[in-house]
Amino acid sequence: MDAKLLEILVCPLCKGPLDYRKTEQELVCKPCRLAYPIRDGIPVMLEDEARTLSVTEDGGP
Question: Family per UniProt (predicted)?
Answer without folding.
Answer: In the N-terminal section; belongs to the LpxK family.
